[in-house]
Amino acid sequence: MDKMKPLVIGDLVIEKPVIQGGMGVGISLSSLAGAVAKVGGLGIISTAQIGFREPDFKENPLKANLRAIGSELKKAREIAPKGAIGFNIMVATKHYDMWVKEAVKAGADAIISGAGLPVSLPEYAEAAYEEMKAVGKKLLRRTKLAPIVSTAKAAMVICKMWDRKYHRVPDFVVVEGPLAGGHLGFSREQLTELEADTTDTAHTFHKEAYEAEIRSIIDFVKKLGEKYGKMIPVVVAGGIYTHEDVLRQMELGADGVQVATRFVTTEECDAPEDYKQAYIQAKQEDIVITKSPVGMPGRAIRNAFLKQVEAERKPPKHCYQCLER
């Protein structure tokens, strides 16, 4: 990694071109994000039910979650005072606008947003700046905004919307391929087909096909950046496990990579030890495609809970008002 160029996002320079992907609930919080930022990457805190450990979470989850955004960022800053730290905020989150504003006001270096198209992300960030200005709060650096896309079409849609509505473009773009973990922008049928084709020939075909898609996204984003006279970095995510995987994405033209699952079993990860052990003990055949709570397909370890869900619907015992419906 020492020979790779830093990931430059405007005035934000990430020494190591690696973004640690956001994982919730409670998997990537201040400990993991701070540790990654301390060694030169971009640490990302997941806001998915981020306040679940707050004493009033069950009675007032919104208040607890918004409070935890500031406290988790503060703890991460204590670990990495000079590091870059941001948030992953799902578009599907209930009160999405409030989460974005809180992250900006807290001083996040970046917000990465997916699980839907973050059409209004710039609007909510600007509203936060105006609210800060109204109370005389000084802005040290504007929060960098990045949509998560899976296809060239999605990249075009979101970039053109931001262009038309806000006369701006993303500060960087995150591309999540079909091998990524959660909230994937592909149909269940597409992912199941990919999982079913286990031969080397089939795997190579799918890999090359999506690499062509990555190149298309990079080409589009670079041309858009030229129009605005700015560099818009493209970060690729999904199935990146080794140093060779990282190098391959750079060869395709990526400016950086986003890695999530690889960090789960680290000592610094915020997940409980039992959770980490489930990853360590899992076999390839244990990884299945399932429908995530936001309604999009994703990957999970087939455990006792998933088996129960497959057999019968399990209604929630309590609603924490986490997702839009």
Written overview of the protein:
The chain has helices at 30-38, 61-79, 96-106, 121-134, 152-166, 188-196, 200-228, 243-252, 273-281, 304-311, and strands at residues 7-9, 12-14, 18-20, 42-46, 84-88, 110-113, 144-149, 173-176, 234-237, 256-259, 287-291, 297-301. The protein has 325 residues and is α/β, with parallel strands linked by helices. The chain has an 8-stranded parallel sheet. A two-stranded antiparallel sheet has the order 1-2. It has a two-stranded antiparallel sheet with strand order 11-12. Helix 3 crosses helix 4 (121-134) and helix 5 runs parallel beside helix 7 (200-228). The protein is globular, with a radius of gyration of 19 Å. 40% of the residues are buried.
Salient structural properties:
alpha/beta, eight-stranded parallel β-sheet, 10 helices
Structure at a glance:
With 325 residues, this protein is of the alpha/beta class. It contains ten helices and twelve strands.
User: How much is the average pLDDT?
Assistant: 88
Query: How many helix segments?
Result: 10
Poorly predicted segments: 200-205
Strand fraction band?
A: 15-25%
Percentage of residues assigned to helices: 40-55%
Rg computed from alpha carbons, rounded to a whole number of angstroms: 19 Å
Multimeric state of these chains?
A: single chain
Placed side by side, the strands forming the largest sheet appear as 3-10-9-8-7-6-5-4
Helix and strand composition category: alpha/beta
